[in-house]
Design brief:
The protein is an alpha/beta fold. The protein is built from 10 helices and 9 strands. A 9-stranded mixed sheet has the order 1-2-4-3-5-6-7-8-9, sandwiched between helices.
Length: 286
């Protein structure tokens, strides 16, 4: 397809941009379902384009677990029992067009970060204010959108392998497909027309720094993550004064079920007040 896009850069940039934008919004094949702890209670909540489905466990302060693009709520299975044991109500859900939830407004194979955020807001209205939100990958941007423009409120944030934003992620997508600036300008216009946001409203640091009041936060990211930028994640954490924990050898998804990472997240939520802003590297575990 790269050779075709190079030709289309000059002969048909508009048509090529339409195809590229469709690929950008197309969901990848989802991960296989992961076994979650028994004893959970299924729930459904309605939002403007259908029903979002999820599960909750335990009693106490609420912790929402927000998966990323192409993910599923059950990816957080390793966190459920430790958080319940520490006295929390744990809520996971599948975003629109993901897992067991209904399709979003663009069908079963597509959605947007804004739809993620609206779904999170709908779940929030069911379970109420959060002690914490733990979000992975693109789920971090959806969480920040819900905090900035929706009803969501939380006392703490935990971001795992956060997506840095549209611009750098699209840069990588552009490099992979090999299209040029004429197509890129049209792709950008199509993306923002669909999402309904300004470009700077889908950037990690811009959204995060715009929150009202400081929210204690922990960021965890793996050095070998092939999908999101460790460097940009650390820079954003430094800019807002969040704690940063680096790991090695866990990649983009396995980090969610690593025992040392799970323990670090639970410890952050259990510790009253603000933790020291130390930089710690956790080794990969088997």
């Amino acid at each position: 397809m790269t050779a075709n896009l190079r030709v289309a850069e000059w002969l048909a940039p508009g048509a090529a941009a339409r195809w590229v934008a469709d690929q950008w919004f197309r969901l990848p094949p989802g991960p296989r379902p992961v076994e979650v702890p028994e004893g959970g209670t299924p729930f459904e909540v309605a939002w403007e384009h259908g029903v979002v489905r999820g599960t909750w466990w335990g009693d106490g302060p609420v912790v929402y677990l927000v998966h990323g693009w192409g993910g599923r709520g059950d990816q957080f299975g390793a966190l459920v029992e430790p958080l319940v044991a520490s006295g929390h109500r744990v809520v996971v859900f599948d975003a629109p067009s993901h897992g067991a939830s209904d399709p979003g407004s663009y069908g079963r194979t597509s959605t947007t970060g804004l739809e993620f955020a609206k779904a999170l807001d709908a779940v929030f209205t069911r379970f109420g204010p959060a002690q914490a939100v733990v979000a992975h990958s693109m789920g971090t941007l959806a969480t920040l959108l819900a905090l900035r423009f929706g009803w969501l409120g939380t006392e703490r944030l935990v971001f795992v392998a956060p997506m840095s934003g549209y611009a750098s992620t699209m840069d990588g997508f552009q490099a992979m497909l090999g299209f040029g600036p004429r197509i890129r300008r049209r792709v950008d216009a199509r993306v923002w027309a669909r999402v309904g946001l300004a470009p700077d409203q889908f950037e990690l640091l811009s959204l995060w720094s715009g929150l009202e009041g400081p929210v204690p936060a922990l960021v965890l990211h793996d050095l070998e993550d092939p999908q999101t930028s460790y460097k940009e994640s650390r820079q954003a954490a430094d800019a807002v004064g969040a704690e940063f924990v680096g790991t090695s050898g866990l990649g983009h998804n396995r980090i969610l079920r690593d025992p040392a990472v799970v323990a670090r997240i639970v410890g952050f939520l259990e510790t009253p007040g603000r933790q020291d802003e130390t930089r710690v590297t956790l080794p990969a575990t088997a």
